[in-house]
Amino acid sequence: xxxxxxxxxxxxxxxxxxxxxxxxxxxxxxxxxxxxxxxxxxxxxxxxxxxxxxxxxxxxxxxxxxxxxxxxxxxxxxxxxxxxxxxxxxxxxxxxxxxxxxxxxxxxxxxxxxxxxxxxxxxxxxxxxxxxxxxxxxxxxxxxxxxxxxxxxxxxxxxxxxxxxxxxxxxxxxxxxxxxxxxxxxxxxxxxxxxxxxxxxxxxxxxxxxxxxxxxxxxxxxxxxxxxxxxxxxxxxxxxxxxxxxxxxxxxxxxxxxxxxxxxxxxxxxxxxxxxxxxxxxxxxxxxxxxxxxxxxxxxxxxxxxxxxxxxxxxxxxxxxxxxxx
Length: 326
Hints:
The protein is an alpha/beta fold and 326 residues long. The longest helix is centred in the N-terminal third of the chain and has 21 residues. The model has no long low-confidence stretch (mean pLDDT 95). Strand 5, helix 5 and strand 6 form a beta-alpha-beta unit. It has 2 domains: 200 residues, Rossmann fold (3-Layer(aba) Sandwich), CATH 3.40.50; 118 residues, UDP-galactose 4-epimerase, domain 1, CATH 3.90.25.10. Helix content is 40%, strand content 19%. The chain has 10 helices and 14 strands.
């Protein structure tokens, strides 16, 4: 089977996707600088290279030592709030780092890339559910860096028509392996499910940002995709560009939304623990609703979310965070 380079493979989504690739018979090389990743998330069947995507010397040695067939590029900074405070950091890592990686890979004959992108490239949606051809008007530095990287991949494709890529625009990745052995561990944590679960575990309060959105219960609505379904989407996209040259853009979501209040209530229901909710002002830039139109990935790749019902999401996340605190 092909040898795949997974950048950011010590992270949440990269680590789980690496495991699924290995289970399918692929060879996997993980590149991660461990600034935000965890060595424990790297499957022992992988070959692990500690290094940065911005380091030409590391990349040169990696591509010289390994016959890499394709890249799954997860390495990147992901906090919208941090990106507004430190735009130069995000531009350096997410844009320049990606360009350095892609250029070095292309020089070594690597012709296939799957890129971890985001629904943040759309900005405030003009229509919901959001299709892939929706106007791109990111409102955060984070979203802008992801869009700039998508555009750089397109420029590589224009330069070399044998180069193929797929950009997967995630909505809200969540959940954990069903046995609780791998899951979400960001520092600092900004995502609602792990934060609410931690509040349930510790008996602390939970800040609910905004109750005046134009939604049924006043809290913002998001499309949640289980990390196992997201990882499988990467493998389907990898198979696609391996058999059919081109450039592809896919939303990865369910097409259904859950409100923040619904998520918190479901966590309380499943865990049997009460969460004290402190209602506070909405965060700047948060949209009322962000829901994917997933028709393209379903029709072109045969993608079917199997684990993205809210019960499976919360139960698997609870199992992971309970073990994480043991």
